[in-house]
Amino acid sequence: MNLDAFRDYSLHNLKKDVLSGTVVGIIAIPLGLGFAIASGTSPVTGLYTTIVAGLLISILGGSRFQIGGPTGAFVPVLLGIILQFGFENLLIAGFMAGILLIIFGLCKVGNLIKFFPQSIIIGFQSGIAVIIFSGQIPNFLGLHNIEKYEYFHLNIKEIVGNLYLVGIYTIITALLCLLIIVIAQRYFPKVGGISYLLGILVSSLVSSFFYSNQIETIGSIYGEIPHQLPLPDFPKVTIEKIIYLLPSSFVIAILIGLQSLLTARVADEMTRSKHNSKKELIGQGIVNMVIPLFHGIPAAGEVARTVTNIKNGGSSPIAGITHALFVLLVLLLLAPYASHVALASLAPVLMVVSWNISKKEQFASILKEKSGHSLILMVTFLLTVFANLTMGIGAGLCLFAFMCLRKRMKDNQKQLKKAI
């Protein structure tokens, strides 16, 4: 735990932390459910991840303001792994990613984040936003039984080919939820992320009262949500599994590192503080080794919840711990009610989240430069959307390295001409 956060700590700070943690906990519940479903797993895994990761990241991380849990950045990667290898192998890959993160931390790989160009970061974040948004179109339209694919274009083709199956009641529910979120955030900005929960509650209540038999719910698709944490358990690991899951675990580790360090950097800029990147990576590594034991998906620091924490006065890890305990309390006391949540109500939440993380202004700004970074941006973005995140980031880094090498060669030629 970051002990510097408790210098001159007072009862007033404690009250602020508890209040902020509660607000963030309210926001984390619909996001945890939504990200888990979008990743191809059951909704409750999102709550398990929020509780375990939220608690441990606050205790072990290198940023006093960091709030951790399941994030949108992982959705396409986790969905691809589950479709290809299954959920149990995702748990193994997540555990291996934790080991890699500890190695990254010990080798001080976190210092390399400053060398990542904005064009790559904006490119893959915008690509992820497109994938999350498009992935919610079936839930928005009521196309719950269509086939899911690893690739964007195949999913779009599947949606278009099944448009005749759209459900009018599903669309009404989704539109109602979207309308509530947009109005709340537009006219009551202080409500912030709580608008997500408000939209889900109102639209789900309307659907259950007026057309309960015409719409799919979490319970009808995934069964009732259990009201306790699972006992620690882990799937059988073999050398063969380790070998073929290593590339996936490496991608997960890179994503966790990038997401967490970028979030910590945002928190530093907002609070004029300084995080410990080595401690952050090692902490994230330990956390992601523990999460699979409780059937949770990979987790990292998350920007929206961390920013909400800071804006609500959170100043120490107590806020993050409170947020995790709040979600645990909801799981223990209110889990059966979550089964009645309409799946159509979760779709607008993730669509709005994807819109907010799309970095559209920065994307347009870099594109207008018409420079080498514009090319890196588009290559990273297009490959992230139409291939996968690994190819997107890899191609972006290769192009960036080529640009740096070319610039270095030109500089050397200029110096040589001056010397002659």
From TrEMBL:
Residue ranges crossing the lipid bilayer per the database entry: 18-38, 44-60, 67-85, 91-113, 120-143, 163-184, 191-211, 242-264, 316-334, 378-405
Record membrane topology: Multi-pass membrane protein
InterPro entries named in the record: SLC26A/SulP_dom, SLC26A/SulP_fam
Keyword Repeat: no
Protein's cellular compartments: Membrane
Record keywords, A-Z: Membrane, Transmembrane, Transmembrane helix
GO BP annotations, alphabetical order: transmembrane transport
One GO CC annotation: membrane
Chain coiled-coil ranges: none
Domain SLC26A/SulP transporter, first and last residues per copy: 14-380
Pfam families for this protein: Sulfate_transp
Family matches, as PANTHER family: SULFATE TRANSPORTER
Name by which UniProt lists this protein: Sulfate transporter
Species classification: Bacteria, Bacillati, Bacillota, Bacilli, Bacillales
